[in-house]
Structure formats: C-alpha cells, structure tokens
Specification:
The structure is a homodimer of 226-residue chains.
Chain A lengths: L4 E5 L4 H12 L3 E8 L6 H12 L4 E6 L33 H16 L3 E3 L15 H14 L1 H5 L5 E3 L7 H10 L24 H13 L10
Parallel strand pairs in A: 1-2, 1-4, 2-3, 4-5
C-alpha cells in the first residue's frame, strides 16, 4: 500500500506540534515545513527542529523568507513592541498575509512531493483576531490551491487544507496531544522567548498556553525566565 | 486628492514592464516588487531594477525567497533542462505555486502600505499552460486576499488583483507598451539569459517575444547571443 505523504507546517509552537502528531497518527508520511521569516522569537525554529525530530518526520525543511523588509507586525518589526496584553480587534502580532504565504510554500512543496494533504495549526477559538486563522480563509485557500497548480488542474487529485485544531480550545488541544504522546517541553510559544527558548510568561501567547495546561490538568512543562 | 498606491509585481520581463506602465498611466503611485527566488535567469532582476527605475516608481523592493530547496521546475532546479521547445501541457518551466507565492508577498506589502490594488502580468493567451496565469486563478486569489487580511476583514476597502494583460496577445501587449513609452530594450524574457542579459533566441520565451515584435511591426530591441 502506498503511504500518503502530507506537508505539515511546524512553527515550533504547541499547536503545530499537536497537528504533526495528529497527521502522523492518521498514517501520513509527514514532511515538516518551517519558515525562517525573521521572527523575533527565533528559538521557535530550534523548537521546530526538536518537534520534527521527535515526531520522526520523513524530512524537515526550513525555508528562508525574510519578511522584515515588509514589516507591519510586532513579530517582524522591532520598532513595534509586543504588548503585555492585546487590545480588542486584530493584535499587533498579526503578520500581514503570513498564513497565505506559508500555505503557498507548503503547496509548492506538496506539489513537488506528490502530496495532497497540507496540515496547519490554524485555530479560530484562541486566535479569533487573526483573519487568516478562520475556517473561511482555509476553505478559500483550498479552492485556490486546486486552481493554482498543475496537480490541481490536471485533476489527478484534490488538495486538502487540513486545520484539525480549528474549533478546539487550548486545553482540548493539549489533551489530544498528550494522548498522542506529544512532548510539549520541546515547544516554544512565547512571542518574546529568549535565544535559549525561555518564555516571558506574560505575553498573550504565554498566558493562553499556561491557562491551557491548567485547564487540561496537565503540569506546564514550559521553561519560564524568572 | 490622495494618490492611490499600488503594488506591481515586476519580473524584468516584457509583460510586467507593460503592466507597470499601465498602472502608472492610471495614476497609481507604484511600488514595484520583485522576487529573487533562485531563478536561473538572474539577469531578470537586473532588468527589473532598470524597468522600475525607468518607470519612476515610488519604491522597488526585491525580496529573497529561495525556491531551490523546493525545486520541481526547470527554472529553479539545475538538474532539469530548459527545453528548446515545450511539449504539450504544462511546461517544465512551470514553478509550483509561484504566482500564489508572489501574490501573497504582494498582498502582505500592500496591506502594510495601505494599497488596495495589486498588478501582475498574468496572461492566459501565451501562457495557457500555466495554471496560475488563468482568470479563475486571479479571481480566486482576490477572494482569498479579502479573507486573509486585516484590511480585507475590517472592510475599509477591497483588494483588487489586476491582470490587465490577461486576454491580450504578445503583439497587442507590445503595441500598448510602446504607446505608453515602455523601453523594451531594458527587459529580459529569455529563460536562459546569460548574466549580462543576452538572450538565447531559441527558448519558448524568446520565440514568443520575437514573434510579438514581428507581429507588432516593431523593431526587436532584444540583445541576442550570436
């Protein structure tokens, strides 16, 4: 039996580590993709390497795409501070067109690999402020993927953009990952993590994560700066 | 009166030089975007610089996005030869998800600039083999753009993906550009151009271009290797 391949976007955070475990559990031969986009928190990429290795992926690629010349986000422009608490609406940590870009790179690679399934950790519960984490975005990208590519147009198959965490809360995600054996101590979620991957404990992403562990009744393995 | 900004994808080729002239003629303040994606024909980027400067753009950005690790195209993988003549179907010079990626980058920049208009040189007449040069692809991307972004979601405006060459033949494109004062000697179309920008004269792209000048009744300014 042919094992189906999948491309999985792996950021080094908790969500994508869970998605990778889910894709692996479904029997896909997983090709992990991470993007070095000039993010502040580059310890994410180290975390992505650890997560991909622990999951036993077929391959892990880190592509260089420096978004700093475009800017417009606290994550890529050092003149915009990452706030302690987000205000209403779309947060300053929103990176313009980021998921569109990452999915486009995943799509290009999937086409070369002959993979039809692309997994990402988009989540509309905790990231309702991010337009490119919503189900309508994912559906529109899937539509585009099948028009944009040789593979899609030739009709040998159909690309599927899979966002299995879309409607899950953080605690639910953590419980699902624990059942699949995810080691969350390998992951980094903090927007302001230091080079060694130690978390600030106070940014939005840290607080969301800590609350998730608490609600899931799981000991928080995060390494915090004191 | 506020001058509207536009992001224009400029490859250094004949088509995008024409599109840039059209956008400028429409009164847009143009921000040119080129992508250094590891293409064989890097003299394209030199041509893009000349074209953008000649058009008097507000700004010209060249982003680095090395697609060679993904491969899958004769333009990014040196183990795949650029053929003299294309066979039927989608040519080996097709780069997986290229226009999706380029439009995503243009979209991210447009959002930061506050621009709603993105121009590209997609053309379904001469490039019918490329799935991402068709009107349905452009429409799907426009749909996505307005779901994927803060600007689109907040409803302050609507992104428009403009592909004014979509239904024009090469001679028609050249005539339109000549009327707008485009200097085609600045452009490079050859898939196998050398570092100085000299064209092979025999690849698909060269032949299409040469035929365009002949049909338009315009002297071909291309520099050919002899």
């Amino acid at each position: 039996m042919m094992v189906e391949r999948a491309v999985v976007l792996v950021s080094g955070g908790l969500d994508s580590a869970t998605v990778l475990a889910m894709a692996t559990a479904k029997g896909f031969r997983c090709h992990a993709l991470s993007i070095d986009y000039g993010q502040r928190h580059c310890s994410e990429l180290e975390a992505a390497r650890r997560v991909a290795a622990a999951a036993g992926v077929a391959e892990h690629k880190i592509l260089q795409l420096d978004l700093r010349p475009i800017g417009g986000s606290a994550l890529t422009d050092r003149s915009i501070a990452v706030p302690e608490h987000s205000s209403d609406g779309i947060p300053v940590t929103y990176v313009p067109a980021r998921n569109t870009l990452f999915l486009s790179l995943a799509l290009g690679w999937a086409e070369v690999l002959g993979a039809w399934d692309i997994f990402l950790g988009a989540n509309a519960v905790d990231y309702s402020g991010y337009p490119d984490c919503r189900p309508e975005f994912v559906r529109a990208f899937e539509e585009l993927a099948n028009l944009a590519t040789r593979a899609g147009v030739e009709g040998r198959g159909r690309f599927r953009i899979r966002a299995p965490l879309m409607h899950m809360g953080k605690a639910e995600i953590i419980r699902a990952g624990m059942e699949l054996g995810v080691d969350y101590s390998l992951t980094v979620s903090c927007y302001r993590a230091d080079e060694a991957g130690y978390a600030c404990g106070t940014c939005d992403s840290c607080r969301l994560r800590a609350r998730g562990f608490a609600e899931a009744g799981v000991a928080d393995p995060t390494l915090y700066r004191c």
